[in-house]
Design brief:
Length: 329
Amino acid sequence: MKALVYTAPVTLEYREEPDPVPAAGEALVRIDAVGICGSDMHAWHGHDPRRVPPLILGHEAAGEVVSGSGIGRRVTMNPLIICGRCVYCLTGRSNLCENRTMIGMTRPGAYAQFVSIPEHCLVDLPADMNPSDAALTEPTATAWHAVDLAERACRRSLAECDALVIGGGAVGLLTALVLRARGIRTLVLAETNPLRRATAQDERIHCFDPTEAAPEERLADVVFDCVGSARTRQLAIHAARPGGVVVHIGLQDSSGELDVRKITLSELSFLGVYTYTTADLRASADALYRGVLGDLKWIERRPLDEGPAAFQDLDAGRSAAAKIVLLPQ
């Protein structure tokens, strides 16, 4: 099969790789569309010790089952492979599974024509769902999970809350779209890239450049940091109202200090968010299919063999797309 292989920092090779051989209980899925995630970019830079080259990256995928149970099923997938036995799996928090592995990290991923994955990871899709839209299920589920956790932590309904989303990449834009679909009172998005601000504004989301205009103190009841850098954490805490909620989704770096005095004196809730559950994936696929989050015209599609250039364009900020989806076929 043809695959896009991470071979060294800032290096991807489009080349022939052996076809995956599914183990017992696994399905072979032909990949129709696969998204470029920020974590893939992080690995491409050589900043993720969990992703060791040579490795086929990619985990935001949709395709068709070609061997295993249910041949012909249109599916997306939960890239987290869980044990189903630990205390987290048994109490509905499978995203925190003590024994989890992941395609595109500990085993070959979906930047390829085929991927093998346990059948319990498969999530069925409507037969007529656009594969590129379906490839957004995974990042949408991250946003969906984050908004769910924030809603539980807030003392009021989202319809009574003001929100700030930091970061206009796929997770940031999707978080804003999920919030709007849930009835958030007011919504503002902070993004430094003017191309991405324009994309968000096309979705009728109010944006600003945080390098030029900081929000007023006590701006938001709930703040979503979809970047996860020292600078954005500082912005998130600064922008939260007393009693507010800061939701930390991004994983750009772990450096810097938290303003624990502000957190303490303002009684802020600081929530870490990691991925999603299968229930989040199913709800997200349904919302995407029904158009709850809009027409998704901001997706950019490229052939898989143009993956190296896509990574370079994203790194240089040359793409207005919040999500580039690669098409292996």
